Amino acid sequence: MPVPLYQAKAEFFRTLGHPVRIRVLELLQEGPRPVHELLADIGVEASNLSQQLAVLRRTGLVVSHREGNVVRYELSAPQVGDLLRAARTILTSMLVDQGELLAELREAEREGQR
Amino acid sequence: MPVPLYQAKAEFFRTLGHPVRIRVLELLQEGPRPVHELLADIGVEASNLSQQLAVLRRTGLVVSHREGNVVRYELSAPQVGDLLRAARTILTSMLVDQGELLAELREAEREGQR
DNA sequence: TATGAACATGAAAAATTCTTCAAATCAAGA
DNA sequence: TCTTGATTTGAAGAATTTTTCATGTTCATA
């Protein structure tokens, strides 16, 4: 009973769909990091971060290993960077469009006020 | 009060994180399509599809226009294709890894049984 | 203008996901 | 061994998202 591909994709995107998880992935693009460092950069409760890390671990996007007192995380799929970049491209172009729309709306409003 | 970028990204990915929405986007990559055609390809209730289309419209990923009796949808950001492709790459490589893992587990099990 | 097909919408119930809190684990050092 | 810092875990309640159903719209055509 293989999970249909489109469902696997949906699950994959859904795991990217959380602000803390996105920040973690972006930080990890620069290289492996211990939890306490992530914790310092992203300002959330330790247990909350831990829960999100668990989500990323389950999907296999990151792996962790303990080094003494500290647990270090890293991306397991380096291509994640490409994905985030592609997303950024779309997103900025969409935000630009929205910005233009917004500008037009404001313009229209000014016109109306005369 | 601009929405922090990482939050915008998370929202963006979350809208991709639904099987019906993914299928819609993939179908629309091949070109514009009327709702009833999407409906035939994806087998869900009409109102359900409609709700998901509404989500995609709100995020600005698709646009629709009525042509007589029919409403035609299309991708508003053609780069969505790139994104889906990047995702597919990661996903398949991850699935392959999992497949290997699975194979090892089965192997280990066989070993154990001897 | 009455009817029907194609879609959309609003709202409530059902299902998932998030956040938070208390408690547990693990390794290092006193 | 006791303590402490680092991190994880389980569970419960809060918040969001999905699904579903009934009802609207819109346009074409009889």
Report what the structure shows.
2 copies of one chain form a homodimer. By secondary structure, chain A is of the alpha+beta class. Chain A folds into 2 domains: 1-77, Winged helix-like DNA-binding domain superfamily/Winged helix DNA-binding domain (Arc Repressor Mutant, subunit A), CATH 1.10.10; 79-114. Chain A is built from 5 helices and 3 strands, in the order ααβααββα. In chain A, a hairpin with a 2-residue loop joins β2 and β3 (70-75). The relative contact order of chain A is 0.11. The mean pLDDT of chain A is 87. Chains A and B meet through α1, α2 and α5 of A and α1, α2 and α5 of B. The first copy, chain A, binds a DNA duplex (30 and 30 nucleotides) through residues 14, 18, 34-36, 39, 44-55, 66, 68-71.
What's the gist of this structure?
Chain A is an alpha+beta fold.
**CATH homologous superfamily of the largest domain in chain A - what is it?**
Winged helix-like DNA-binding domain superfamily/Winged helix DNA-binding domain
How does the overall form of chain A come out from the CA principal axes?
globular
What's the structural domain tally of chain A? 2
**Quick check: average pLDDT of chain A?**
87
CATH class of the largest domain in chain A: Mainly Alpha
Name the helix and strand elements of chain A from N-terminus to C-terminus, one letter apiece.
HHEHHEEH
Class computed from helices, strands and strand pairing of chain A: alpha+beta
Whole-Å distance between the termini of chain A? Answer: 65 Å
Q: CATH topology of the largest domain in chain A, which one?
A: Arc Repressor Mutant, subunit A
Largest interface: A-B, 40 and 39 residues
- The residue ranges of chain A in which pLDDT falls below 50 over 5 or more consecutive positions are none
Strands of the widest sheet of chain A, in order across it, are: 1-3-2
Total helices of chain A: the number is 5
- Helical residue percent band of chain A: 55-70%
GO molecular function (chains A, B): DNA binding; DNA-binding transcription factor activity
Protein name (chains A, B): ArsR family transcriptional regulator
Keywords (chains A, B): DNA-binding, Transcription, Transcription regulation
